[in-house]
Amino acid sequence: RCVQETGYGLDSFIKELHNKHKHFVPIIDPGIAVDPNFRIYTEGLNNGVFLKGPDGKIPIEGVTWPGYSVWVDFLNPNGDEYWEDCLVQLYTTISFDGLWLDMNQPSNFCDGECSDELHYNYYYFPLDFYNNLYYNPTHRPLEDSTISMQAVHYGGNANNNEFNYHNLFSLYQTNSTAKFFNQKLNKRPLIVSSATFPGVGRYASHWLGENYASWRYLEYSIPGIFNFGMFGIPFVGADICGTRGNATIALCSRWMQLGAFYPFMRNHNGAGNLPQEPYIDPKLKSVSDKAIRLRYSLARYIYTQYMQTSLKGGMIFKPCLLYTSPSPRDLSTSRMPSSA
């Protein structure tokens, strides 16, 4: 909603970027502010496109950055059109070139439904239910930091609840967002999605989520990218230098060198941490300059691999075990770019 306010200067900032042949990719969250004076909210309410509460009539509420929030039900036949219209309205305000879809698990600042922020632990199932699920490694309630499993989707079927459809949210949202780029803007989509599900790779890229500024998480990023390549999401990367905690110059330097070979390269920092931009230290600047220049020198090769992967499938960032037989010790971290 900040783009509605004056004084941010986004329009002139984006024009300046475009004049320098650079691109603007804003972050947007799916939670829509509950505000009777907010046109986006009232339009969705009148069209009945929001996820409903257990009664199937009143939109279910949670809390996200704008406060009390509701979410689009993409199973609703009008859900796609509503979401695409929202993006059209946003595009007329700020001429973005891609979209970063964050918090589309969907995330929630309370657990389940929270019409009262002080009493929000309304679990759909008894707590011992979660210990008996086929796969629940954390043994935490499924409504932990997300919307209620009792939310009702379009269709009137007793099985159309959030418990059965939760993991599909990102697939439907990225599909709808890709249609906006293809049909409304006549552009190839550039979408980065926080949440994923099999098939999301057809519409969006992904990053491995918030990580820590540590050597261990630098190492974790390699099998993480391997995994998502095998999941059919080849355009993926990790937050270089780490999102949480303070990165040392040595760690950040090595991570920039490794990140130059990620399919998706991005240095991403968290609020309150020490700066980790490549220019903050002479050594880091020198290492980063060489790494970034190396990546640009491979740009045509990398884009060729993207094109071949989009047409034929496969992985861009491949483990060596596809070509050789490394020792078990090296299986998780040995990697090579796609063959030329």
Would you mind describing this structure in some detail?
With 340 residues, this protein is an alpha/beta fold. It has 9 helices and 12 strands. The strands form 4 sheets. The chain has a 5-stranded parallel sheet with strand order 1-5-6-7-8, covered by helices on one side. Strands 2-4-3 form a 3-stranded antiparallel sheet, with no helix packed on it. β3 (62-64) and β4 form a beta hairpin. The longest helix is centred in the middle third of the chain and has 16 residues, at 169-184. The protein starts with 9 loop residues before the first helix and ends with a strand. Mean pLDDT is 88; it is low at 117-122.
Provide the descriptors you would attach to this structure in a database record.
12 strands, globular, 5-stranded parallel β-sheet, 340 residues, alpha/beta, 3-stranded antiparallel β-sheet, single chain, 33% helix
Task: Describe this structure in a few short sentences.
With 340 residues, the chain is an alpha/beta fold.
